[in-house]
Amino acid sequence: MDFAVPDDVARLLVDLDRFIDDVIKPIEDADDNVRFFDYRREDSRTDWHRGGLPNAEWEALLARMRVEADRAGFLRWHLPKRFGGSDGTNLGMAIVREHLARRGLGLHNDLQNESSVVGNFPTVLMMERYGSPAQQEHWIPRMLDGTARVGFGLTEPLHGSDATWMETTAVRDGDEWVINGEKYWNTGLHAATHDYVFARTSGSAGEGHGITCFIVPTDAPGFEVAEFMWTFNMPTDHAHVRLTDVRVGNADILGEAGRGLETAQLFVHENRIRQGASSVGAGLHCIDVAVDYVNNRTTFGRPLSQNQAIQFPLAELYTEAEMIRALIWKTAWEMDEGVDPTEITDKVAMCNYRGNRFCCDAADRAMQSCGGNGYGRHMPFEHIYRHHRRYRITEGTEEIQIRKVAGRLFGFTGRAKT
Hints:
The protein is of the alpha+beta class. It has 3 domains: 7-127, Butyryl-Coa Dehydrogenase, subunit A, domain 1, CATH 1.10.540; 150-254, Beta Barrel (Butyryl-CoA Dehydrogenase, subunit A, domain 2), CATH 2.40.110.10; 261-409, Butyryl-CoA Dehydrogenase, subunit A, domain 3 (Up-down Bundle), CATH 1.20.140.10. 47% of the residues lie in helices and 16% in strands. It contains 11 helices and 14 strands. Helix 3 (90-102) packs parallel to helix 6 (260-296), helix 6 (260-296) packs parallel to helix 8 and helix 7 (308-336) packs antiparallel against helix 8 (341-369). The chain is globular.
C-alpha cells in the first residue's frame, strides 16, 4: 500500500474546500443560519413542541446543502457511476470524512444528521448490493432524489448488539408475510417513507441464519411509531416502532430470505470505518482548537502552552491519531482490494472503537486544556463529545467491537492474521 493520498482524492479535497468556501459557507452565514452551528444556540435545531424532532427549517437547510453538493458533483462521489457517482473508494471516503470533520462543525459536514457534502448512503449501497434488478431500478433513483427515504430497523427493546436473538417475526401467509414485533432506535423514522425491518422467518433464536430484511412502508396498517427517544445529543430521529400484523409481499424482501444479516453487515461494516475516520477528524479538530488557544493564552506571564502538563496529553493524543489513521487507511484499502470481509472484520472493529474513543478523549482533554472557556459552549468541545459519544454505542458497542477482535485473536472466529 502507498501511504500517499491518491492523486484523485487529493484533487477532490482541494475542490471540496473551494466549494465549501465559495458556495456552502455563504449559505451558512446568510439569514441567521449560523444559529444552527452556534454552540450556544444549538437548541434551535430541535423542535421541542413536536416531540424533540429536528426543526423543519434546519432540515430544509440541510436539503439545500445536499442539492448544491449534488449539482456540483460531490454528493454521490462514493456511489457507482451508473447512479451518478464517481466510483469512489473506501480509502477515499475515509480520507474525505476525516478531512471534512477536521474542518469543524458547519453546513458542509454535520454528523449529527449524517449530513455531508460527500454523502454516506449505506441504505442505497444495501440496495445496490442485494436488491434485484427490478428493485434497484425502482428504489435507487427514488432514494437518491429523496422521494423514498428508508429507515433502518434492526435493534429491539431487549436485543441490541446481538441481533440473532431478535423477537420480531415474519410468518408466511400465501403470497404475503405478516410481521409482528418491536424495534428500538429505528433511525430516520420521522421522515422515512419506508423502513428496512429485520425479522426472523426461520431457524431458532441465537442462529445467524433465518433472519430476513423487508422493505416496509411506514404508512402500512399496523406500523406504529410509539415514541421518539430523546438522547444525549438532540434532536432525535430515533423511533420506538411497534409492528402489529403488518403485511408485505415477496417483492418486498431485500436480498435472500433468511440471509438478512448479510445486508445488515454491509450497513454496519461501511459505517463503522467511516465513523472511525470522522472521529479522528473531529478529535484532531479539538486538538487544533486547543493548541491555538493555549498558544495564545497567557498565564503567570507566559503562554499556557509552555507547560508540559498542557503539552504532553495533547501530544499523546496527536500521536494516537496518527496510529489510528494508519490502521483506517490500511483497512479501507484492503476493503477496496476485495479482501473477504470476514478476514478484516476485526480490523474494522479496531478502527471503529479506537477512533470513536480517541475523539471523546480528545474533546475531554481539549476542554481541560482550555479551562473554563473550554467548558463553555462558545467552544466546540462539549458538542463534539456529546455527538461522538453515541458512536461508542451505536453500530455495535465498544465491547462488541473488542469481542470481535478477541474472537480473532483467540481463535474463536478464526485466528487473527498480522
